[in-house]
## 1
Amino acid sequence: MSWVLIPQGSHFPITNLPFGVFSSPGRDQRIGVAIGEQILDVRAADEAGLLPDLSGALRLDTLDGFLAAGRVYWRGVRSRIAQLLSEPAHEPVVSGMLVAQEDATMHLPFTVADFVDFYASEQHATNLGKMFRPDSAALLPNWKHLPVGYHGRAGTVVVSGTDVRRPQGQRKAPDASEPTFGPSARLDFEAEVGFVVGTGAPGPVSTADFAEHVFGVCLVNDWSARDIQAWEYVPLGPFLGKSFATSISPWIVSLDALIDARTDGPAQDPTPLPYLRSDRRWSLDLALEVTLNGETISRPPFASVYWSADQQLAHMTVNGASLRTGDLFASGTVSGDSPEQRGSLIELSWGGKEPITLTDGSSRSFLLDGDTLTISATAPGVDGTRIGFGSVSGTIQPSI
Amino acid sequence: MSWVLIPQGSHFPITNLPFGVFSSPGRDQRIGVAIGEQILDVRAADEAGLLPDLSGALRLDTLDGFLAAGRVYWRGVRSRIAQLLSEPAHEPVVSGMLVAQEDATMHLPFTVADFVDFYASEQHATNLGKMFRPDSAALLPNWKHLPVGYHGRAGTVVVSGTDVRRPQGQRKAPDASEPTFGPSARLDFEAEVGFVVGTGAPGPVSTADFAEHVFGVCLVNDWSARDIQAWEYVPLGPFLGKSFATSISPWIVSLDALIDARTDGPAQDPTPLPYLRSDRRWSLDLALEVTLNGETISRPPFASVYWSADQQLAHMTVNGASLRTGDLFASGTVSGDSPEQRGSLIELSWGGKEPITLTDGSSRSFLLDGDTLTISATAPGVDGTRIGFGSVSGTIQPSI
């Protein structure tokens, strides 16, 4: 129990305590921790001597130093914050360090080092396979042997709330002889879950060491221009169809807050190679919800994703690639078994052939200028609570 | 003419003056400029008040601040250094700021922000198309309409001289039913040319603005594990087959030093879309040379590359993607028309079917443990001189 008022259904009870970076009138950019409808000003708490200091890591304007400090420190800081926000004796001092979330501006919480995007949902990969290769097996031969992934553009990862300008580029209609240039006509979202690396490593990280390196989890919208992507992506993969923007939620939920959200992932057949095995995978029972202009259009279940995050991390580094603080890797689009659980418009509208209808009577195959797309999620927290991720949201601006 | 002794054939006459980062006994990591067989200690020259200071950009331990300072500053510093190294009046003071290259250790010269790798050589793309898709057209339909590219792993870009450990990973023989795990048996190099972004931009950069944003040029070896790549790359492109290491040369040659190396690129048919056109492309007449254990195995001509660097930059940002100081984009493997000009072993040995023979009697289809692969290049400098890039070199270490 916190002495802070926590409204019923809040994403941020005392069992969550996610980390982010905010500013507000009178407070320049700094680290904060969400609690109910408030933010604890972590810098202020540290300056008051209330937190375990480590070379000023808690006084920076990003989470970078905190992330680099490692798991023992993450746990020490978070458990001390839980104490400060629950023991009534601290209320007189600490209540002055709370800022209303509605008065705060959230910032990109950490410097994104490398950004990797996986393709780990079997339902999503199957849906796209059926649409793009109707005459072949929906899944490619490698898909159940390794978590397929690729590197995205780290420099265009933006925080929730940042407007997204419709990209221009080359696209070619299937029956056209030449490509044309112009605004994307098939702008889409992808509902994903991202993992934030705290502690780097010089080489391979085993599935067993996942929690030593990954600090926490956020929501990701991997905006996609399907027409640009379709024309460019052979043979080297997605490039400009993705690189214009990727949005992340501002609050990073720690693995420690998600310990009761762990769940058995889908059974894996064939049995993965040894480096991809673990006694207990880091599958997580996150319930995602996607809204378009406030109306729910999908509820993707993250627990259905085939390749878990520990398997993704082990794969990403098994070739000896080093890992850095700030590396971000995302699951790829999360889609469930049923049509209402699909995590992108290209799936929801089946390639544009079956537009979805909104309650205002309009229909969508892809996103229109002015549309606001929001992804949120909740998960089981500890002590029987339910915790949330807040949301990642973006509004489409027209091409210049 | 410099008062520094410049041996005949040196890569670093006074018309070059490339920038890098070095350390040497008694000097911690700092910026330097190559001249003959020496390095000018730029920090020392700046501390002595000999250079135009800008917020201490020249006293950092990377080029990051210098790169961010922009073209006017790049030119001012370089022309002042040319003056210091040519006017005899400066010799008494400045000669004490020279360090022998043989006594120096070179470091990664800048923080790599995003790394993009193109596929811009028609001969290379054609060779690979013939090998991998023998029954189809060698070039895919998009290839002559846009510079195909993808994002690589920025965190594993290393400086020349760094050993490269043979990666492990999944690979599947064409006739095998299941993949196996182990050290790559088809480890390759790719001889490429890289472009280093100095001044960032919030969105599209036109071909005309290329030189406002790109500071200079280096050599790149995009080490590639062909067996890992072949199994993983469908449909999202290369990932672990590339991400274990990418080596760059330590000296960044400024565009100003390469003004007389500009050359007409290959004629482009069909005419590219307007955003990819320029009055005069930034094609460069660089003569690359590849040696394996000291023996020349290829001489790829960079002037033959189809898509020029200004076209690559315009394409990379046309979707609105922002550009950052430290972004690195590379040409992709440079291969010329003749077999002796191929820029990778998979081409030189034609997929392993025609191993090359070295003078020691051994043969190579791909790289062996202990092999040292070096790429160097020269180009026309100003005033009829010839300048060079030094080299990028790496030695293969066995898998752990």
## 2
Amino acid sequence: MPIALETAANIPLFKGLDQETLITVAKLMSSRSFLSHDIVLRKGDEADHLCFLLAGQLQVVDVTEDGREIGIHFISPGAYFGELSVIDGAPRSASIVSVKPSEVAFLPTAQARALIFNRPLVAERFLTHFAQIVRASSRQRTLLSIPNAFQRVFAQLQQFVRDTNEGQVIEGLPKQHEIAIMVNTSRETVSRALHTLMKLNIVEKKGTIFIVNRPDQLKTAAVAGLDEMPATNANNGPKVEKAEKAA
Amino acid sequence: MPIALETAANIPLFKGLDQETLITVAKLMSSRSFLSHDIVLRKGDEADHLCFLLAGQLQVVDVTEDGREIGIHFISPGAYFGELSVIDGAPRSASIVSVKPSEVAFLPTAQARALIFNRPLVAERFLTHFAQIVRASSRQRTLLSIPNAFQRVFAQLQQFVRDTNEGQVIEGLPKQHEIAIMVNTSRETVSRALHTLMKLNIVEKKGTIFIVNRPDQLKTAAVAGLDEMPATNANNGPKVEKAEKAA
């Protein structure tokens, strides 16, 4: 189904474009609804559209060489996605699935490219967005290089912390199995890591949000681990390192 | 020292720009020489220039949360770097060190931004380059999620394989300690992995290049491992997984 001019005008990438361009763009776009767990884009497919999330939530998901599913990041309303293939013409680099019922708008690749390369405003936004992806992916890479799974969970939690009037909080924390695939561990490890933080009163659950009572200790936990971490897990990293060094 | 018009004209990002723009750009640029192991950019510094490697070789290096150095990728002559900060104004995301004696040219941020956002030709090249970084970083992320260190080395080697007239070869393989930091393991593990591949005649060393005699077996080694892998290392991944699952 086609999208309304107002909907197109509300897409952050298009903010500030003249009315005429907006009308043209809105006419070229179409939208589609997805249920939870639907596949919105499939890895390896050809890129025929630049996509925009109008409502709902999506997750970028990839599969490791040995077949395990890993979550890369979440997509929130207003964001666009599928831009890699639109830019370089190569197949989709990852699959995207809906985490909630979602509404997605599609702009054909040729028109998307014309808009991006010929409008300094759009080019700048697009490049800034890419820069953010590169930084996030670099942070995630650094995080994944932490050999200890517990510390990876702590480091990941740190990235969700936001400053609010009530201090540092984590709102809208992804589900445990989602965090597990982001940091390449099991759901059980995520559960135990969270439990340990709550037991030590470093974080505290209040309804759907987590209050971070001791931000400095959360940081220390990510960098150096916690004394209270179960022995088996606490020693994963060093054990692997030693085994490799002894090899 | 300022750079020659011819040098600027040979920078791939600037190919096809009109003579007048090239003259302006060349006048704004300066160049500097670096010895091996010099720090060219330092993580956390402010971004005052877009940088271009004129000659030599550089490596992007980051430091993990627990202080270990990890190599991200190499920069070859003709490439530009430091573009993230030029785009988003945030501090440098990683340090860059010279692997060989190198010559680097610098274009001030303001002029670099004007060029990127206002020239569709440059905007497209810049975005395509960003898309490649994102894809490479996503591949590396997938690679790092392989729990077994040997398999990570095999998967990394696969990425260096090129098709030539003499079949599949690996030319200019980074040093063992460089591969080690790329795949987050020890130099000893890289050495043993390479040795195992040569012993099984999957790869063969001829002077400075490696001939890949059995590309399919290299692939299998990356995905499923090799029977000949030393037991300690071959079981790292599963051991960790089990420990976590039992936790």
